[in-house]
């Protein structure tokens, strides 16, 4: 039986996950492809480090990126993460005519266009299902299953760490710091959780999915990003009373031909399936102008789920390999390079909002705030004031109707400057 | 720009849905493929019938199946339903070297192996995403995204009509007949709803998905099928009290290397996402040994959602067309023809059960039933007796632990023969 030989760049969680699956599902894979898939060489930083999974003696380990891309390899699998070394490895692989599978969302977000162009130039495949939402087949779904749909809107819970922390805060009333520490103890959060909790990781994935959904490039730098560090148990409790759960959402939608995108903690009506995505699960909700609403739910991280996505890409490449005269369809769109997106300026985006003011318990405060809202055209849907007055002031929560980000921010700036404002106003979008 | 010309077999709901999408998403499709897709000819029963969608004057209408498969056509799209004419049309298309897209789950379930073989012989594609769960990309997901996973278990709510009826019965406490009549008025159920409410349509889809998930043939005739006509508001109410919703579920799982499959109304814990699939929506929950649990949720029927799936298949075929030397991978497995499944005899299948006995309100009845259960090794988890005694007797509901279908049925047979049994015992599986 033919053998497809892989060169692995990196052998951490996902790499050893892939190795485990290749081992335990060997028969299944052969039935699918009529070929065997083997790991031939592995690029690691430290040759002496103990491995989570024993690859046996036939596998060559090297710490030289150049050495990984050799004639012996059919497909290069980049699982090392980071930017520069990974980028060089992939470009070298392309130059050598190798197909590449990567799970590197950060690299794709930063240098995706360059990589697509290089892959096209060398007529090789660049696959990256594992880069977004782990085992959830969202890339494939956008590229092929919804190929004929105009994507009206895409909403995603795509960071398991952030979702786990918010779920713990919601179910156990924990403070953010406590939930984060727990997540770190359980290995759900890294020592430096910045990318996860500040929303950057989610933004990287959104950037990748926007290309697959719309065939345009929405520069990472242009995506407004708000993390979850500002979410308090108090906000979660208020949200609950109004019938919402707070989730870290990535969103992109077509607003009269222009794209509006962002990553924000958002209040999701508890009746929505998205509100029920718990723990370290991920979900993506799509709306196509033909297919209507679709939701995909699954594990967004972990060695086996992510390894499964990497393997799916490898098998897709193998299926296409007999086909020499076919240009790999890496982006799912023919007009290359992908044009820049026509972007709706974030300040023009419209949304319902949750505002939490922290004010001194004084007569006329509510009047001043509601007057300012009226002046800025921010229309009030619900309002509630609660709790004892004290040094920290009292929380005053207002749910608005649809309003522009610009109007909301102008109003907040005005109110934060008031002497009755004990703390800056907290603002979250409402789905 | 190149043009791909379609020959449509049938122009009903899905056909006109496809035509609408080709029209409204023309630009998007061209961006994806660098080609245009046009409907060239349409096969209809009655040439004089008014059409839901005007295709314009360039489209040829014919009532002769032989005439549809002509040199002018690149892809034949079979949307006529039924068995014999559809089967002949597809075989003629293959013989003429045309790729085929079909939404015909019944035909695939009955004659799928023959069609796969014929397509392979003529080296053409047979695509059928639209045959299962409408717009939900479940076929593609099994064929490509989970290609490297062993499917541990698959659960599906795959008939919108049955799910709509059960949802109405659940939310409005309606009787089955009333809910069915409503569904028919709304066009959710056909004049003859047999296929939908008796579970046959769901079984056809399950039969197709088993092939894609396991690469084996599980003959339709071997799938145990129980429809929803026996579900009463009383059962739904009891189920609710125990924390369950009743859904018509298709299931298949790998039990120590043998497949257990079936279509049954089942009690689903209300905390499961599957329990929240409402109205005419569909959902499929998969468990892969690598990817873990995944759920896909969306619209399982309707002109546009199903048309979207048909279009995805067409576009996939077009993407592969440049590739002359590649054998289309229609089943996702190489060992053709698909071998017969190693089937677990249904009577050996294990499940928790919901039993509703209708008994005369007499001393010792409960004792007799529980004694018989003990003798048959059916262990009781919960029991409740309710309501006024009367001509109709009183309902006695028992929830069992895991037990074999054989033991459960033997116990029921024994109890139904008792003089205190006013009506036969009702039995549903519990998820």
TrEMBL record, chains A, B:
GO terms for molecular function: homoserine dehydrogenase activity; NADP binding. The lineage of its organism: Bacteria, Pseudomonadati, Thermodesulfobacteriota, Desulfovibrionia, Desulfovibrionales. Gene3D superfamilies: 3.30.70.260, Dihydrodipicolinate Reductase, domain 2 (3.30.360.10), NAD(P)-binding Rossmann-like Domain (3.40.50.720). The keyword Acetylation does not apply. L-homoserine binds at residue 190. GO terms for biological process: methionine biosynthetic process; threonine biosynthetic process. This is Homoserine dehydrogenase. The active site is at residue 205. Belongs to the homoserine dehydrogenase family. PROSITE patterns: ACT (PS51671), HOMOSER_DHGENASE (PS01042). It comes from Pseudodesulfovibrio cashew. Pfam families: Homoserine_dh, NAD_binding_3. SUPFAM superfamilies: ACT-like (SSF55021), Glyceraldehyde-3-phosphate dehydrogenase-like, C-terminal domain (SSF55347), NAD(P)-binding Rossmann-fold domains (SSF51735). CDD domains: ACT_HSDH-Hom (cd04881). It catalyses: L-homoserine + NADP(+) = L-aspartate 4-semialdehyde + NADPH + H(+).
